[in-house]
Sequence to fold (203 residues):
Amino acid sequence: MNATKVRIWDLPVRLGHWLMAGGFALAWLTGDSEEWRLVHVFAGGSVVGVALFRLLWGLVGTRYARFADFVRGPAAALSYLKSLPGAQPQHHAGHNPAGGLAIILLLGLALAGGASGWLTYQEIGGELFEEVHEAAVNTMLLVVLVHLAGVAVGSIVHRENLPRAMVTGLKRGDAADAIAGSRPIAAIVLLVWTAAVAWFLAR
Fold:
């Protein structure tokens, strides 16, 4: 087993991951409170901002940030999951196919939940968009829980701390697997963009 650690995740991917996780958690905790309504909307807006940036970064970002690297479809995801109990589970330097599927679902649900939440906040559409918002958010929570379970299983099977990798950017791999840089300027753009989107939606 290769024990070499190389840089796989760039800074925008890591920062976006934790911003979305924190924003979703905060929005979930404040969802039923009128007192914290503005915080809820701002937190939800930050999730939307990250999701929009991630769509672009999935096209122009570093190697493992790109959709072309990890979007493989249900068949590939199932093949990966079937390999986990075996002696040689599939190992991917970037996202595995199951994780990639979760990312696509989370991005879609984040945008659906954000759009319907904003329409509800603007009192547009009556109860219709409120129901859509609740359905999208509840489904997103389910996907998050399944994703967390997958991260735990993957960490055990591959003997690799995947949450820590999303902090440091380092994963097990060969020198040829490493990305060239962390893209700090793009990370700054992500922060500014996310704050701007959250502010705009919370007005």
